[in-house]
Amino acid sequence: MTHCPACFAQKFCRRWLVVTPDELRNPHFVIDARNFIHGRMVRHNITPGTLLDRLLNTVSLMEGDFRNGAWGKIDLPIHVFEVPDADIDAGRGAVMRESILDWVAYNFGRAWDDRVNAQLHGIGQQRFIVIASLARAIWWQDVQMWGIRAANDNDPKP
Ligand SMILES: [Zn+2]
């Protein structure tokens, strides 16, 4: 596998790095990932209902394994997009599926302003990790500036 310049100091290509806690804590990373993925959904005509399937299908054709920050192989927790059997048994399957789709549409179905509070919590964090990690692996050459802002961005305008 070729090594990209951005990964020179790493033991593996950061293309396969699962989104880290530090990245999650960076609101600009969350906003950039949301807006990038939203842009790709628009460009490729991907609906919220097919986003995860399309990302998973694309990654399955690529050569590589997801890694944690310690270079260990790690599986993405894609079960956070599945409706638990208990909910299906209790007749809540359709409602739960709808709420998952709503979450995808809320996070990736529109463009986000840079000033919003972009904190994610609970299962939302897990879902974001899955989708953002898949998108980073797929579009690695285009996403290395996620979360990075020019140092003078916070200066008051004259
Ligand atoms: Zn690399």
Which structural category fits the helices and strands?
A: mainly alpha
The SSE order reads HHHHHH
- Rg to the nearest angstrom? 17 Å
- Roughly how much helix do the residues carry, as a percent range? 40-55%
Largest pleated sheet: none
Total of helices: 6
* Bound compounds: zinc ion
Number of domains as seen in the coordinates:
1
Brief write-up:
It contains six helices and no strands. It is globular.
Account of the protein in words:
With 158 residues, the protein is an all-alpha fold. The protein has one domain (15-145). It has six helices and no strands. It binds zinc ion. Zinc ion (ZN) binds at residues 3-4, 6-7, 13-15.
Keywords:
158 residues; mainly alpha; globular; binds zinc ion
Q: Topology, please?
A:
Blueprint (H helix, E strand, L loop, with lengths): L20 H5 L1 H17 L4 H13 L24 H5 L3 H16 L13 H17 L20
Helix pairs in contact: 3-6
The structure holds zinc ion.
